[in-house]
Design goal:
Elements lengths: L4 E3 L5 H13 L3 E2 L12 E2 L1 E4 L7 H19 L11 E6 L5 E5 L11 E8 L6 E3 L2 E4 L5 E2 L7 E5 L3 E4 L2 E14 L5
Antiparallel strand pairs: 1-11, 2-4, 3-6, 4-5, 5-13, 6-12, 7-11, 7-13, 8-13, 9-10, 9-12
């Protein structure tokens, strides 16, 4: 089934604040694209990769549990591993942070193995305007939930985007579950 799987309150508000603080405590890098470098017309965000931050193993454990639940309940994909670090992203209004329509499955060897995308909303919905995660499983665009701590999972081949942030900042956590090629 292609429809996104939503898990409300996958992380508590306190856990979201703890994760979001990692962005302030660690130098964020300008957001790039898998195998393509940087294109600010396509994406404007600052990223922190959690494998470069100590004592974040509890986050990955939770992400694995969420992915296992969603895959069992909705997708039934053949998943084998998480070959990439979770990505903490900040989309700020000062740069009109955004990410245009794209799919997460890609041309690089690693991106080609992406099967599920998991995004956790870390900011509260009143902390920013714009910054809506939109997913296109068919001809109709669906908006992801904006509740702090909500998780949404969807097949990595679905088109999705983050609309420009016009006030405040949207922080999110993204990871990809990998597996053998789709057949």
């Amino acid at each position: 089934m292609l429809a996104p799987y939503c898990l409300p309150s996958a992380f508590t508000a306190a856990e979201c604040a703890r994760i979001a603080a990692l962005h302030d405590e660690n130098p964020g890098r300008d957001g790039g694209l898998a195998g393509l470098g940087r294109d600010h017309n396509l994406r404007r965000a600052e990223l922190v990769w959690l494998d470069e931050v100590e004592e974040t193993g509890w986050i990955m454990t939770r992400l694995i549990d969420i992915t296992r639940e969603a895959n069992r309940a909705r997708f039934g994909f053949d998943l084998s591993d998480f070959a990439e670090s979770p990505q903490l992203a900040r989309y700020g209004a000062e740069r009109a942070g955004h990410f245009h329509w794209h799919a997460d499955i890609g041309d690089t060897a690693l991106a080609a193995r992406r099967k599920l995308t998991l995004v956790v909303q870390l900011s509260g919905p009143d902390e920013y305007d714009g910054g809506t995660l939109e997913i296109m499983p068919s001809a109709r665009v669906q908006e992801a939930p904006r509740g702090q701590g909500d998780a949404v999972l969807f097949p990595a081949f679905l088109l999705h985007r983050v609309t420009p942030v016009t006030r405040g900042a949207r922080l999110s956590l993204t990871v990809w579950a990998h597996g053998p090629a789709f057949r």
